[in-house]
Design brief:
CATH architecture: Up-down Bundle
Radius of gyration: 21 Å
Number of strands: 2
Largest sheet: 2 strands, antiparallel
Structural class: mainly alpha
Helix content: over 70%
Order of helices and strands: EHHHHHHHEHHHHHHH
CATH topology: Growth Hormone, Chain: A
Number of domains: 1
Amino acid sequence: MTEPLHKSIHTDGEVHNSPISSLVSSSMATFLLALAMGASTIIIPATLQKNGISITMIGLIMSFDTVASLLISLLFYQILRIVGMRAGLLFSTLLRTPALLALALTSNAYIWALAVFVNGAGYFAFMILLQTRVAGLKFQANKGLMMALFGTSTTLGLAAGPVLLASLQKILPLAAPYLHNLILQSALPLQTGLPELQNGLIFMIITVISLLALVPVLKGSFPVPSLRLSGSTYIWKSIMKAKGPMFAMAMAGVSFFGVCAFITLYGLKNNLKFNESALLLSMFMMGSLLLETPLTWVSDFIDRRYVIVIAAFISMICAVYLPMAIYVSYQACILLFIWGGVIGAIYSTALALIGEKFDGDELVAANAGYSFMEAAGGTAGVLLIGIAMDLFGSDGLSYVIMLSSICYFSFALTRYKVV
């Protein structure tokens, strides 16, 4: 019989026995990485559109991030067996760094596509390693609440990303002319204007923040699960064994990645200013930040599956009303606030369900399946939304997310027994 994950481990160092301290260090690392990703999520598509790239092409480039997530999910089980958790965290950081620097130093769309893919692989590998560690922690009570607090650290970072970006766009113009003059007077073979220099500086700052995410985890001790199973087929078995939370993750992936990638462009296409459009994403993240924990905490007292199904239904309603709410700023902000909260609740509640249903090596495979379904939904969502927005206008965003919500809600009513 497979031993529980928290007991059956090899370590790269001393085992940290306190689940709370492990949760805190993991949450700090998650926040810093999500902060870097939150800023990147806005500046990458906005810069591509400014450079004359079509919405379909932007959707394709942004989907490389989730394609990388799919590959990491499928290979995660084998990667963790070979390199271990601490080495995996270090390697994923080394992957992200040159990719972010490439975004800072070039404007070539093909290089950006490759950089988005590599950065996505590094980001997702780092996050899934932390997620696996946290899912295996044994809390005496309120596991749903603990999972929600971990998820909130991710949301807080993503929500702070647009704020960081807005602050940098105000501060950097003051310093950029001096740096530009220094470059022109130096022997460096750089030919760049002030706007490109400011963008480059933003990406360099994002790179530094991404590197800082490694600090909390290097200070702690990260246990490595003892993995006896092999092959990716067990991932599919775990998905079929927990279809409710797994399929919910696919639906949540469509909404989360779709909103993150396109809500800024959606606002711009509906005649909002850039700052107002960026605020839409901030409100989505803020809703997840403030509502995810209380909504998931409710699942500690009632059937968690009810929470997931109700949240999926509310997500569907939000997608329906977005095209009407976008014309009134405060209504759009309220809608995205609620939307972010229910999507965040799906993430944390599904993770709590999986943590209860699986243990030991099975938990590692199930967590990979959980992440795979999220990435699969995100990849399909970003690609389809990009195409739909080109074919049907900005409301293509709502159509795709609405369809995914209807599909999951229909499944929940007809096949997934909520009892």
